[in-house]
Every structure is written in C-alpha cells, then in structure tokens.
Design brief:
Length: 186
C-alpha cells in the first residue's frame, strides 16, 4: 500500500509547508501539491495525477476535507474516483477514512458542511461589498488591463490574437473589451 499525500492552497501567496509537513509525518511516500482554487476540479492537475496513479490498496491522504474541494458533489466524486481504483481516502483533521462504512457517512456530512461554509463566506463577502459601496468606500477591483490601449491597438490594425499576446491576456478578454461586453464597462 502506498500513501500519497495531496496538499492544496487557493492562492499563490499561501504556503504549503504546514500541509506537506503533516503529510510527511503521516508517512506519505509521495506528496503532490498545487496552488489552485478548490471551488471545482477544473485546473487541478495534481489531483488528477494522483487519482490516475492510484493502485488497488493505495490511500490518498489530505490534511482536511476542504483540500479535496469546497463542493459536496466534487468531494464525493473524488472519493468515488479513488474507490473505482480500489483505493481509499484518509482525512487527518478530523481523522476519517473511507476504508469503513462509517467513514463514507462522515465524509458526506463534512463535504456538505464545507460547501455550506463556502456559501456563507461568499454571502458575507457580498454583504461587506454592498455595505462598503453604500458608504462610498468600495470602488471595485483594480483593473488589470488598459482598455484604452486595447482599443487603440485594434484601431491600429492588430488582430485580437496579436493584441492578446502583446497585452499578456486572453483573446476572450480582448474580445470583451472591444465588443463592450466587459462586465466592468457595463
């Protein structure tokens, strides 16, 4: 049996050291980590690699359930994918494993709690933004693109692809600016 650790943080400025330290202390022979949102499985290549690598009897270990995901369906799908490979999932805090039937029930409930917590966080954030707007303290996020420059480059004859490459953004962002579908410009 191989114990494979999975560590994840949501943003690039967060550290993985605490999680990887706990996973090493737990005896994980392999530890994969990534800095990506847990809101969905999109873009989580390290998690996909672990699931693909799992062999019968292996165990994927995470420090907390929310490291697998913030959506109950995603968490249950990850667990299901592991079990399809005849492997198990262990969460260290609280200590729960899918090796037993009770573990499935506990992980389902914990997944639901993680999803509910995410919804509460978003709601509090939305309320805070509305309150700050009402008080005139919130001006919105910092613009990352110079929209006037994009429009000038387009008028100069550059293609959307060339503009995107020059500006360091996607063609879709250029398209949104040029067609006035940019949410900030509405």
């Amino acid at each position: 049996m191989t114990r494979i650790g999975y560590a994840r943080v949501s943003s690039a400025d967060q550290g993985l050291d605490i999680q990887t330290g706990k996973l090493k202390a737990e005896g994980c022979e392999i530890i994969r980590s990534e800095k990506v949102s847990g809101a969905s499985r999109v873009g989580r290549t390290e998690l996909a690699t672990i699931i693909e690598f799992l062999r019968p009897g292996d165990e994927m270990v995470v420090t907390r359930l929310d490291r697998l995901g913030r959506d109950t369906r995603d968490v249950l799908n990850v667990i299901h994918d592991c079990e399809q490979r005849q492997a198990s999932v262990m969460v260290l805090d609280p200590l729960v494993s899918t090796r037993g039937e009770m573990g499935h029930i506990v992980l389902t409930v914990l997944g639901m709690v993680a999803q509910m917590e995410r919804r509460f966080i978003k709601e509090r954030q939305r309320e805070g933004i509305e309150q700050a707007r009402a008080q005139g303290r919130y001006k919105g996020g910092k613009r990352r693109l110079d929209r006037d420059q994009i429009r000038q480059l387009s008028l100069g004859g550059l293609t959307n692809s060339a503009i995107a490459q020059q500006m360091g953004c996607s063609r879709m962002q250029v398209y949104r600016v040029l067609t006035k579908h940019d949410p900030i410009d509405l």
